[in-house]
Structure formats: C-alpha cells, structure tokens
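Notes from the 1:1 (GR / supervisor)

We went over the backlog. Supervisor wanted to see one worked example end to end before approving the batch request, so GR pasted a single chain during the call. The sequence is below; no edits were made to it. Supervisor asked that the structure be written out right there so they could see what the output format looks like.
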Amino acid sequence: MTPQEIKDLLTGDTEFALIDVREQGRFSEAHQLFAVCIPLSRMELLVGDLIPRFETPIIVVSDTEDDFDMRAVEKLARLGYINVDLMEGGITAWANEGYELFSGVNVPSKAFGEFVEHTYDTPRLEAAEVKAMLDEGKDMVIVDSRPFEEYHRMNIPSGIDMPGAELAYRIHDTAPDPETFVIVNCAGRTRSIIGAQSLINAGIPNPVAALKDGTMGWHLAGFDLEHGSTRSAEPPGTDGTEKALAASERVARRFGVEAVSHQTALQWREDHSRTTFFLDVRSPEEFSAGHLPHFSNAPGGQLVQATDEYIGVKNARLVLADDIGVRATMTASWLIQMGWQEVFVLDGGIEPESLVSGTHGSILADVPEAKVTPQELNDSFDTWSIIDLGSSLLHDRQHIPGALWCTRSRLKEAIAALDAPPRILLTSEDARLACLALPEARAVTSVPVDALAGGTNAWIEDGLDTADGFERTVGPLDDVWYKPYEHRGAQEKFMRDYLTWEVALVEQIERDGTTQFKAFD
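Structure output shown during the call:
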C-alpha cells in the first residue's frame, strides 16, 4: 500500500491495524502517529492480544535498512493472519510524502493529554506552589495517578497511590471534606492532566489541580522525592461508593457513555466480521483474583495513558468492565473523547459466578520447554555460551555473568559471533522469549541449544551471581525506549527534553491532521 492510501485510511472508519515491526527504541525515534509497535522479536507475545481477529487487515511498516518487514509478513502468515500488506517504501517513503513522523512512545495518548489541558484549561500548579502548600500545612491531599510500581519507585512526599481510573472511585473517602485541596500527579504530564480533569468531570466539590510536570518537575525544582512508599488509597465504603456511582452517572450523561448487555457482548465475541476488545479496567490484583473469560486486564488509567499497548486495531469496538461500572465509565468517557466511535460499558459489571482466576495472555505459537534449571546451569557454567534475548534495560541492570546480549531478531548474527561454543543456552526475563527462539537457534547451528527454565528472573530469585552493564552485545541497543529517569547520566536534561516534547505535541498533531479528538461542553 502507498503512504497516500494509508493516510486516507487513518481518517476513515475502516477497521485495520497499522503495525511497526522495528524494535521499540528504533520505533521511538520516528514513527507514524497511529502505528502500534509490535517488534518482530516479540511478535508472538504481543500480537494475539493487540490483533485478536485473524481476518483483520494489517499493514506492516518498517524501514529500508533491514528485512524486518518481509520477515514480519511471513511470521504473521504462519501465525494465521490472512490479510497482511506492506507499506511501500517504509518510513522513508512516508517522510518523503511530507507526512508527520513522531518521536517517543504512546504518542496518541500523550498528545490527547495536551489537547485536554489546552481545551479545558485544566488547573495546574507549579512544584514550588505545591511545596509551599505542604510546608504551610494546608488541608490538602496529593494523589499519584500512576500504577503502584511506578509510585513505589519515586513519589511526591505524602502522596498516596491512586491510579487514574481509581480517582473518581476512591477519592470520596480519601478527601471527604470538600475544602480539602486535591493535587494529582504522575511522572510527567499526561496522567496528571487526565487525572485532575477526571475529578473535575466527575463533579467532586473539592478544589483540584494537576501538579505541573509531575515528579520530574518536582525533581527539576530541586525538591526531594520519596522512594519505596507504600501508601495506597483504600476501596470506598458505602458512602464513598454511592458518591462514586453518582459521579459516574453524571460523566456517562455528559459524554454519551452507553452500556451493553452481557448477552450482546457474548454475541459480539462470536462475531468474526468485527474486532471487539474486552477489557477489564480494574487493578491487576483484582483481575488476577477473578475476571470474566475472554477479558484482558487494562487498568483504566493506563489504558488512557498508553492505549496503543492494549488496542492494536484502529476503529475496533471496545467493551469495558469492572465491578460496579464506575471505573469502566470514567475510562470509556476518555476513550470517546479520544475519538473511539464504539465504546461500551458492560451493564451490571462482572458476574461473580462466571469468573476465572489468574492472568490472561495470548501467545500465538507453540512454546518449547526450557529444560535447564538455574542450579544446573550454575553447576556446569563453564560449558555454556549464554545469549540473553531479554530487555537491554534489564540486562544493563542485572544479568547472568558473561551473557552476550542481543535482540531475538538478530539471534543468527549472535550465534555466529560466539567462539566455537560447546553448547548454547538462551535466556530472557521469564524464559518465554528464549523458548520461542529455540527452533530458530537450532536451525542455524549444529551445537546443542537449550533455554533456561524460568529465565533470568529465576536465576536472580535463586540468589546466584549476577553482573551489570554490557559485557558483550550484538547489534544496536535499540529494543527499549528509555524513560527520562532510566538513563544512567544527564537525567535532568532528558527530563527537560521530554517535558518540552510533550507540550509541543499539540502543534504537531494539528499538522498531522489524523486525530479525531472531541471537545465536549
């Protein structure tokens, strides 16, 4: 397909998936606004959830410097997808047509956050103003709209973890006095803006503001952050639940959030002519304890913040669920404003008698078994050449000593770079990627190849020796987009650059012209 044909699709209502198969780090340098990153090296782990219907029209995008696009087309065919095209000329051709390319990740969601602030003039306070309020002992509460893991890493002093979709659900008991000032923060901007505006849209009586530039802005202002905090907002009591339900009803009326019955949702699940995503927007802990079959977990705040990590098909139909509908309604209201045409909340919420426990995930390939345990590797360590196919970010922090790092897409080159190994052991974070790569490795070498059971995580959990940094690598370190505070040096510069980039997205999406963000009175 030509870039022009794809440009036309982006402003229409046809269902399709535009996937960029380069590694995430390379993708983050320059990509189309609505391209979803599904790296060739991790395709089997991601594509089943992001593109659940085999008949979905798929357009593969890469660049002209490698053969990732053709390899991706072949792999998608083997996995069962029957309607796959290439974008002619790759990213270079898109740029040559004068179309916009975007840097970063989760760009549609981040651009939407800037649109929201610009459209609704969401109240915001500088770090110095919030610090002064804290020092004065003002009646206030700081709520952190990020998932617990991010909050736990660093947070504003006194902040309480309350991820995005939880805000309108839990705030009523956390700040019951209408005079209490509520400050919403995240790491940067998007979730602070969306979180604060969520509370305003929900009609809570408290004064509300976003912390401008989040924890990064706080750090850049020279103020100390807390690390390792564990404060989390409790689920609401009876009074808080009633207020949350009333708030979600107001939001549903304003933004046109519709409900769908369980019976209709079941019919949609069997409809092979359309893609429907079934998303449980509760916390991971609640989801794991019990969820409806065929639903995957997409915590509401993260679904708005990183829509392209959960939904890979543009113009698909979305069904959201939680226990009583508050979190699903709040999340649906934002997806509608982002331009999704068919967003529904499951009427009546989840039904306890039909729940299943555990996690959910579709791996569209047979995964060979890993047979070497960490202790067996440790006992015969000198007889193995180890290749780590996991995240370069995690490898840099902690890996098995002597392991060579590469992406799975460059495994053949990595094996060729080994010095006559007696046998080869593949590892990755949890072993799934390493096990998927076993047939590929065995096809290009005559030496025995196996995988580490439980992966590098199991090796670390067993308390065995680890190393950090990069000892040996094959290919560029292009698999991961590093968050500003994940860089080893010049973190302040990366933070400032990132915050400047976010603000500039408003003008860039106007030039691009393919967003369909909606403003409501």
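Supervisor's comment: The CA atoms of residues 438 and 450 lie 7 Å apart.
Batch request approved.
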